[in-house]
Design a protein that fits this description.
The structure is a single chain. By secondary structure, this protein is α+β, with helices and mostly antiparallel strands. The protein has one domain (10-102): Beta-grasp domain (Ubiquitin-like (UB roll)), CATH 3.10.20.30. 18% of the residues lie in helices and 27% in strands. It is built from three helices and seven strands; from the N terminus they run βββαβααβββ. The protein has a five-stranded mixed beta sheet. A two-stranded antiparallel sheet has the order 1-2. The longest helix is centred in the middle third of the chain and has 11 residues, at 44-54.
Length: 109
């Protein structure tokens, strides 16, 4: 499994929080398998921008046509659905563990 580290930097007078993010193979499109990342991002929009830079095209599979989180994608912060924590307004806390879970369907009748 690969690991990436983003440097903690200042933004608007505050420091971005260091979080751990689990990115499954379905999101990396199998290029690197599942990744465990240590990132310095403050919220969901920043996380999505960072993931797009690491995995070009990933935002298209995570967001709907209006730019909202696709209803078939679940993002958990410390085992809590981010939608119940405030969605893209939730501010990550130092040490948060984030898990992205895209819905995967298929099969035949």
């Amino acid at each position: 499994m690969a690991s990436a580290l983003a440097h903690i930097g200042k933004k608007e007078g505050t420091f971005n929080m260091g979080i751990k993010v689990r990115v499954p193979t379905a999101i990396t499109r199998g290029a690197t398998g599942s990744d465990n990342l240590d990132l310095a991002v403050a919220n969901l929009p920043e996380l999505l921008v960072k993931l797009e830079s690491l995995y070009p095209g990933v935002k298209a599979s995570l967001l709907d046509e209006k730019g909202n989180l696709n209803r078939f994608v679940n993002i958990y912060v410390n085992d809590e659905d981010i939608r119940f924590l405030g969605g893209d307004k939730y501010q990550f806390q130092e040490g948060d563990e984030v898990l992205l879970i895209p819905s995967i369907a298929g099969g035949a009748y």
